[in-house]
Amino acid sequence: MDLQQSLWLIFPEIIIIITIIVVVLAELILPPQKRHQTGWFAATGLVAAFFVTLNLFKVDTAAEFFGRMVVHDAWSLFFKLFFEISGFLIVIFSLGSKETRGKNQGEYYALLLAVIMGLIFMTSATDLVMILLAMETVGILSYVLVGFNKASSRSGEAALKYLIYGATATGVMLFGMSYLYGLTGTTNLFDIADSIAQSETGFTLTVIMLFILVGFGFKIAMAPFHMWCPDVYEGAPTPITAFLSVGPKAAGFALLLRFFFSTLTQPALDGAFTVVGTFKWPLLIAILSAFTMTVGNLSAITQSNVKRLLAYSSIAHAGYMLMGVVVLHTAGLRAILFYLIVYLFMNIGAFMVVAAIRDGIGSEEIDDYKGIGRRMPFAPIMLALFLFALTGLPPLSGFIGKFYLFFAVIDAGIYWLVTVAIINTVISLYYYARIVKAMFFDEGSQTTPVPVTPLQIIVVSISAIPTLILGIYWAPIIDFAEQSIQMLM
Fold this sequence. Notes:
Its main location: membrane. The protein is built from 20 helices and four strands.
């Protein structure tokens, strides 16, 4: 593929890079009172990249370029759209949040756009070197965004913890990748797959994959690599917390699935996959899935801070999505992609409401939520909607997402895992209901009405509408997910 064709296939990324330059220059040119407009430039760039990505679906054949380090396929396009939508929501969210208004607006939006670009390359990478570069782009810039509020000691502490955990996880993963290169003599995933299929490397390969799984597990907040998550989510500005809960998590799943299914499986009949080699990684993932959802849900029960509670909830949802990996079937992969879409709207929506309430009452503690259902009705009603969707109650989108995941696991005959998931779903209803009870049924010490800005109403509604509609009519999203997994076949 020549350079012109290659550049066209990464034209969404080029648009994002141009937008970053425009945002940085606007920060220098605009007077301080107008620098918040850099957020609108960022949002415009993401909308433009979104429509270019849609147009790229017309190129319906997979293509490798840039020395076979990056691939264009339906899988990468699915996640490009995912990150562009989530990035747009976070930018609009940030424009209305007190935590991200003030100085250095251009720097904030430029960093956010750069992280989105790194996430896109994570999902397109088919070479160990590119995987590492993309992950480090996301990681290093994320550390800065978490600590962006320099006046907050909590934000600085969260950034330092994130840096330490991230550097450790990356080092362990890189150690495993170096041995994988030594074992196979190549850094390309498809060449690695050919080498593994032709060699007898059982124990060595198992140790290597365990090291690499540490890096992937860190990105998706999989237990036991989840310890950074609650502190980082609590300390970071709420828009960044919302972004970290969906963006890097989705990229981590995209990379994990591409890596393991490309190197350690082969397509079989009727959408199934067979494991290559002696490493029984599906069983390991099943155990980690059950462990992750259980740790997340049990830990959430004791939390008094809403952001920490949602952090442990995010860990639990990573455990649910890991069930789709275990199935070794396109039904499981389709369920993961669909769940990521519904999780995007209901989780970002929940954090949007938490930010709106924080701006109104100045607190994120559940005890301070008492009685706010009467003081600012819109925000608590929306938060209840998102929490019940996260639980998986019908007729909301979370129910359909869990239905597809659970059905795929049942169809594969892994009954013990779906039993654990059902028990954990019941547990999650308890701690989500605690927040709803505090908002609507407990008496608060304050009765003064709290206003909600029009922009907050708009951004929350943008997330609430898909949360409702996808619980009633979801066929187009399922079909889209089905088309996007063809790269693994």
